[in-house]
Design a protein that fits this description.
The complex is a heterotetramer, with two copies of chain A and two copies of chain B. By secondary structure, chain A is an alpha+beta fold. Chain A has one domain: Molybdopterin biosynthesis MoaE subunit (Aldehyde Oxidoreductase, domain 3, Alpha-Beta Complex). The two termini of chain A are 24 Å apart. By secondary structure, chain B is α+β, with helices and mostly antiparallel strands. Chain B has one domain: Roll (Ubiquitin-like (UB roll)). In chain B, 24% of the residues lie in helices and 32% in strands. Chain B contains three helices and seven strands, in the order βαββααββββ. In chain B, the strands form two sheets. In chain B, strands 2-1-7-4-5 form a five-stranded mixed beta sheet. A two-stranded antiparallel sheet of chain B has the order 3-6. In chain B, a hairpin with a 2-residue loop joins strand 4 and strand 5. The radius of gyration of chain B is 13 Å and the shape is globular. The termini of chain B are far apart. Classes of the chains: A alpha+beta, B alpha+beta. Chains A and C meet through helix 1, strand 2 and helix 3 of A and helix 1, strand 2 and helix 3 of C. Strand 2 of chain A pairs antiparallel with strand 2 of chain C.
C-alpha cells in the first residue's frame, strides 16, 4: 500500500516506475499504466510543444487525495503518479499513472479513475505552442463527463 | 501607507491564462477585515480596474489556502488565495 | 498502425515494449498497458509457480484477430501483445498488452477489450503449482461476463 | 493394418487438463470417410474406451484446422482436430 507522487521538469523512466509497482509485490497480479505524450495535432494545427504549469503544493495534495480515493475504492496495492511541468516538445512524455491490484478490472478502473480526476481536478494548466503562435488549452466538457461517470456508480 | 496597523495582507496567486492576462503571478493585497471571495474580488478590481473583465469570469475557480473555495468563503489576513481557470493537465 | 504478437518462454522487457509503442509515434498521445504477474494467492493456497501451455499457431492467429478487432473498433495506433509460456515462478511476468491511441478513453477501452478477449478466447491453459500439489485453473464465469459486456455496446 | 488404402489420417491434439487426463498430446486417427466431430469422438472412444469420460465433457471445445468448430462440423483426412477445455490464459 504505497502512493508515490512526483511533479518534475525532468523526464521519467517507464522501466523504473514500472519496476517500483511490481518488484517484490507478489500480492498484486495486475499492473495497469497510462502514459500521456505530446502529440502532433490539435484543432487541425501542428503542435510543436506543450507548456505545463501548476500550483505547487496544492497539486501534490490533490493528486494524493485522488490516489487515496482510488486506493480505497478498489483496494489497490501500489499507485504511482508522475506529472511533468515546463516546456515539453513533440513526442515528450507528459504524465504517467500506474497502479497495481489483485485483479485486472480494478487495476483498469483505478488507473482510469485517477486519470479522469487528474484531468478535471489537479491544478495543472497547459499551453499549446504551434509554429507561429500559442494558446492556452480550454477545458473539455468530455473530460468533465468522464470524471462524473465515476460518481454515478 | 495602505498597510497600516489595522490592515492585513492576503497573498493572491494567479495561474494559467489568467496569470498571462493580468501579467501578474502573485499580488499582495491589504484588507482591513475578513472578506468573502466575492468581496475580495471587488476590492481587488477597485485597485486594479483593468483586471475587471479577466476576474469577472464565471469559469474562474478560487482556492483559499490551497482548498477549493466558493464565492461566499471568508478570507482573512495571512491567507493565500488563488484564482485560476479550469484545469487542463494530464 | 502496427500489431506485434509474441509468444515466448523468455521474459519481456517493459521498457523495450513501451518504447516500441511510443517512439516516433507523434500521432498517438495515449499509451495504456496491462501487465499480468504470477501472484501469491489462489483459493487460499500459496502459489509457487504457474505453468502455461498453448496451441501453437492457433494462439497467434487468435491474438492477431483480437488485436485487429480492437484496432478497428477504436482506431488504435500500435498494439503489442506478449504472452509467456512454460514454468513461471512467483512474481514473474506472464502477459503484456499495450496500445497507443489518440485519446485516453480509447486506449483504456482497447487494452481492456484485448485482455478480456485474450482471457476467454486465446488458446492458453494455466496450471497452478502449490508447495505440494498442482491443479489446472478452471475458467471463470466473471471472465466470460467481462468479455460479453463488449458485445452489448 | 487399419490404415489401408481407403483410410486417411486425422491428426488429433489435446491440451491442458485433457492432455494430462488422456496422457496423450497427439494421436493419429484413421478414418474411412468424412465424419462429424461428434462421430469422430465416438470412433475415438471405440478405440480408446478409457477416454470416454474425459471426452464426453460438454465443456470441451473442438477446433478443426485451428478454427473453433461445432459438433456438426465435418472432419476429413488430412485435417488437424484439437480438443481442449475452456482457455485460462492471461
Amino acid at each position: 500500500m504505497s502512493i508515490e507522487i512526483t511533479i518534475s521538469h525532468d523526464d521519467f523512466d517507464i522501466a523504473v516506475l514500472h519496476d517500483a509497482l511490481q518488484i517484490g509485490n507478489v500480492q498484486q497480479g495486475a499492473v495497469v499504466t497510462f502514459t500521456g505524450l505530446v502529440r502532433e495535432f490539435s484543432h487541425g494545427d501542428n503542435v510543436v510543444a506543450l507548456e505545463l504549469e501548476h500550483y505547487p503544493q496544492m497539486t501534490e495534495q490533490l493528486l494524493l487525495s485522488i490516489a487515496e480515493q482510488a486506493q480505497n475504492r478498489w483496494q489497490l496495492g501500489r499507485i504511482s503518479i508522475y506529472h511533468r511541468i515546463g516546456y515539453l516538445p513533440l513526442g515528450e512524455q507528459i504524465v504517467f499513472v500506474g497502479v497495481s491490484s489483485k485483479h485486472r478490472q480494478s487495476a483498469f478502473d483505478g488507473a482510469q479513475f485517477i486519470m479522469d480526476y487528474l484531468k478535471t481536478q489537479a491544478t495543472f494548466w497547459k499551453k499549446e505552442h504551434f509554429s507561429h503562435s500559442s494558446q492556452w488549452v480550454e477545458f473539455k466538457a468530455s473530460d468533465v463527463q468522464a470524471q462524473q461517470k465515476w460518481a454515478a456508480d | 501607507m495602505v498597510t497600516g496597523n489595522d490592515a492585513e495582507q492576503v497573498k493572491l496567486l494567479f495561474f494559467g491564462q489568467l496569470k498571462e492576462r493580468l501579467q501578474c503571478a502573485s499580488y499582495n493585497l491589504a484588507i482591513k477585515q475578513p472578506l468573502s471571495i466575492k468581496q475580495l474580488k471587488s476590492h481587488l478590481i477597485s485597485l486594479q480596474p483593468s483586471w475587471q473583465a479577466a476576474l469577472n469570469n464565471d469559469l474562474l475557480i478560487a482556492a483559499v489556502n490551497q482548498q477549493i473555495a466558493q464565492q461566499q468563503a471568508i478570507v482573512k489576513g495571512g491567507d493565500e488565495v488563488a484564482f485560476f481557470p479550469p484545469v487542463t493537465g494530464g
